Amino acid sequence: MKWLPRLLITTLLSVSVVVTLSLLPQLENGSNSAVFRSVKAQPVSEANIVDVMSKLQLHLRIRKVEVTHAIVSVDLISSPSSEKDEIVQDMYEIPRALFSRSTNINQVLVRVLDSGKSNTGNGTALLLATDARREKWLPSENVIPTRGIEEMEQYLQSHFRVTYTTRWRERFEIKS
Question: Which CATH number fits domain 49-172: 3.10.310, 2.40.160, 3.30.70, 2.30.30?
Answer without folding.
Answer: 3.10.310
